[in-house]
Amino acid sequence: xxxxxxxxxxxxxxxxxxxxxxxxxxxxxxxxxxxxxxxxxxxxxxxxxxxxxxxxxxxxxxxxxxxxxxxxxxxxxxxxxxxxxxxxxxxxxxxxxxxxxxxxxxxxxxxxxxxxxxxxxxxxxxxxxxxxxxxxxxxxxxxxxxxxxxxxxxxxxxxxxxxxxxxxxxxxxxxxxxxxxxxxxxxxxxxxxxxxxxxxxxxxxxxxxxxxxxxxxxxxxxxxxxxxxxxxxxxxxxxxxxxxxxxxxxxxxxxxxxxxxxxx
Length: 264
Fold this sequence. Notes:
It is globular and about 75 Å long. Helices cover 28% and strands 20% of the residues. The longest helix has 26 residues, at 38-63. The strands form two sheets. An eight-stranded mixed β-sheet has the order 5-2-6-7-1-8-9-10. The protein has a two-stranded antiparallel ribbon with strand order 3-4. By secondary structure, the chain is of the alpha/beta class. Strand 3 (81-83) and strand 4 form a beta hairpin.
């Protein structure tokens, strides 16, 4: 009787915990506004999937020593620290355009994917042909790898690529507790050809709260990793206001400005 109760208790705990776990597929996309936790959760998911595939390869190699598989790696568009002594490999455009090969069963992480495969790039042959094929056949080419991406809005991502994503995790209200724990609201958005309609019709459907533990002793990535770009922008002394009234509005200049951000 005691064993039955213990088994039932363990199953109940697993069932309750699974409700707060993020279910994953070959391609995962996280969206959300500034500070919504999309970079944090997508990085954590990428590392989790990397470890999962490495365990699988490790077990495979134990029984297939004559033809062992290579160790899966994490390719990322931003620097990610996997452990104390290991960093991710730099993801290049060559990987995305099928001119450089990825190791089998590896994980690819693209931060702010809309800056590369933007909806405004739908006529770009590299996006429509090469990158679309990279996403469409990613599972085949990596033989079981995972692709994790994020952006502030799913509609920023070019449509041909967006259609390849089964589910988008839309994040809201990321909160930290005691500097150790966090919570975030997650809405699952099912992707189809008419994503905008789905988002409008199911704005509050599939909403759940995800709880987790922050990596206190190991920093995974720099939340301000792109700040180096801003160092090239000159500092100009601003004018101070001296009254409450103002008779001019901010308007976009018709003259093309040359950005002063630091480009590598």
